[in-house]
């Protein structure tokens, strides 16, 4: 649990100082890796290719950093991106939900929804 809290604290520091990272998870992860993982740009690419490399340096995975960003933006309005970015994210989320529900392969998500009452 303390590892996740450390990731959250690092992400919060970045979001406070770097407004662009509030709307771009890849840029956020780049800053996280290069500032707290002590990576240079060339080593950043290696972080995606090698699980052992990330573990060796104690870097969180991309998904953990992204989740921390979402959690912080839910808690702190000042860390949210612009209204345009928020609206675009909502539209993308709606599009994904429609895709998941209408999937012809009878997805797990659709099965879940069908069985809820």
Question: Could you provide a short overview of the structure?
Answer:
By secondary structure, the protein is mainly alpha-helical. It has 2 domains: 2-78, no CATH class; 82-117, no CATH class.
Features:
about 120 residues; 2 domains; 7 helices; mainly alpha; single chain; about 70% helix
Low-confidence runs of at least 5 consecutive residues: none
Anisotropy-based shape: globular
Number of domain modules: 2
Average pLDDT for all residues? 82
Helical percentage? over 70%
Cα-to-Cα separation, first versus last residue: 34 Å
Instruction: Please state roughly what percent of the residues sit in beta strands, choosing from under 5%, 5-15%, 15-25%, 25-35%, 35-45% or over 45%.
Output: under 5%
Q: What about the largest sheet?
A: none
Q: Tell me the number of helical segments per DSSP (H or I, 4 or more residues long).
A: 7
Order of helices and strands: HHHHHHH
Number of strands: 0
Structural class: mainly alpha
Rg is: 17 Å
Task: Give a written overview of the molecule.
The chain has 117 residues and is mostly helical. The chain has two domains: 77 residues, no CATH class; 36 residues, no CATH class. The relative contact order is 0.12.
Secondary structure topology:
Elements: H1 2-17, H2 25-36, H3 41-49, H4 51-57, H5 62-75, H6 83-101, H7 108-114
């Amino acid at each position: 649990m303390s590892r996740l809290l450390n990731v959250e604290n690092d992400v919060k520091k970045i979001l406070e100082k770097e407004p662009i990272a509030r709307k771009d998870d890849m840029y956020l992860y780049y800053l996280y890796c290069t500032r707290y993982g002590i990576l240079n740009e060339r080593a950043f690419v290696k972080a995606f290719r090698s699980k052992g490399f990330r573990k060796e340096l104690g870097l969180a995975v991309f998904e953990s950093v992204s989740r921390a960003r979402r959690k912080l933006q839910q808690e702190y309005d000042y860390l949210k991106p612009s209204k345009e970015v928020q609206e675009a994210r909502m539209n993308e989320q709606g599009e994904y939900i429609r895709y998941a529900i209408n999937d012809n392969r009878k997805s797990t998500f659709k099965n879940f929804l069908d069985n809820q009452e």
